[in-house]
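TL;DR need structure tokens for one chain.
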Amino acid sequence: MNERAGWLPVKFVSRALLARALGLRTLPQLAPHATLWLESCNGVHTFCLRYPIAVLMLDADRRVLALYTTVRPCRIVWATPGTWAVVEPHPDALRSVPVQVGHRMIFRRGGEH
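>> reply
TL;DR here they are.
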């Protein structure tokens, strides 16, 4: 596996049931450097979203198991076996962070470097 690490700022962490159910639907647009983190997640959907998102499936060591660079509205992405967390960044965030399957990700709450 590739040991290269990439980082993304995490702006939203959803643990409460209502927050998880609503996800990004409460935002009219996802900011380019905002990321939603969902633990214990079997998949994500983009119903009721008006914009595309990227989706990363991570294992417990924060290694990327699967990567979807652009998930358009009204789609479902099921979790890859072994997924511990799902991360939903803006698709542009992945253009500045060269993420690949196998990379270990580093996340900083609030987007500090």
